[in-house]
Amino acid sequence: MKLTIALSKGRIFEETLPLPAAAGITPAEDPESSRKLIIGTNHENVRLVIVRASDVPTYVQYGAADLGIAGRDVLIEHGGTGLYQPLDLNIAKCRMMVATENGFDYDAAVKRGARLKIATKYPKIAREHFAAKGVHVDIIKLYGSMELAPLVGLADAIVDLVSTGGTLRANNLVAVEHIIDISSRLVVNQAALKLKYDSIQPVLEAFASAIPA
Ligand code: PRT
Ligand code: MG
Fold this sequence. Notes:
Protein name: ATP phosphoribosyltransferase
Shape: elongated
Strand content: 25-35%
CATH superfamily of the largest domain: Periplasmic binding protein-like II
GO biological process, one term: L-histidine biosynthetic process
Distance between the termini: 32 Å
Largest sheet: 6 strands, mixed
Number of strands: 11
EC number: 2.4.2.17
Radius of gyration: 19 Å
InterPro entries: ATP_PRibTrfase_cat, ATP_PRibTrfase_CS, ATP_PRibTrfase_HisG, ATP_PRibTrfase_HisG_short
CATH architecture of the largest domain: 3-Layer(aba) Sandwich
Bound molecules: phosphoribosyl ATP, magnesium ion
Catalytic activity: 1-(5-phospho-beta-D-ribosyl)-ATP + diphosphate = 5-phospho-alpha-D-ribose 1-diphosphate + ATP
Number of domains: 2
Number of helices: 10
Structural class: alpha/beta
Strand order of the largest sheet: 2-3-1-4-11-5
CATH topology of the largest domain: D-Maltodextrin-Binding Protein, domain 2
């Protein structure tokens, strides 16, 4: 039975590699330096496909890949249709936060019921967060560099991922609210899990055994 695993080359990549290794899967060439999008492995029946991080759930949903690794942020925005999410891999950890320019009184703005402009790459997470708080917001969808938006008056606040906090600090922004903790998860196509159970189950077990504490 052939297995296709979707991985992304971005910041998850380095922390991802020990997982296939634990399952005895070695890429035939270094995905980091290769420009190939399909990379064979030491197993004749296992191949890797290299996709954009935010596209991993889509490839797995439609069965173009049987398994993949994706951030919880990406999975929430995608919605998770057709995906089984058996393992939190405890890698690429960060926090989804609300941040504003240093000096903006976020708590006061929320208290007086101000309508806030929120710039984010994560409209679903942002909308649900502010709806639960009863705060009215206009969501401004961006594709990157959210940190710029409050500095040039595009938004009052951003919803973005924070790991070291260095990017916020460098741009005179401060985190004002924690939304959720993020890590990467293994996702499996629901139909593939049934049809290819004998091939997928050992991979799941090996990945589970390689999860960092
Ligand atoms: O970058 P590209 O647009 O190609 O794709 P992508 O952003 O979808 O992928 P990638 O590789 O950048 O991120 C993949 C996954 O890594 C995300 O989906 C998260 O689950 C996870 N991850 C973990 C992070 C971070 N930590 C993180 N810090 N993703 C992004 N960041 C960014 C954040 O958006 C901010 O701009 O890093 C900056 C903050 O970092 P600090 O260390 O300065 O706080
Ligand atoms: Mg990125």
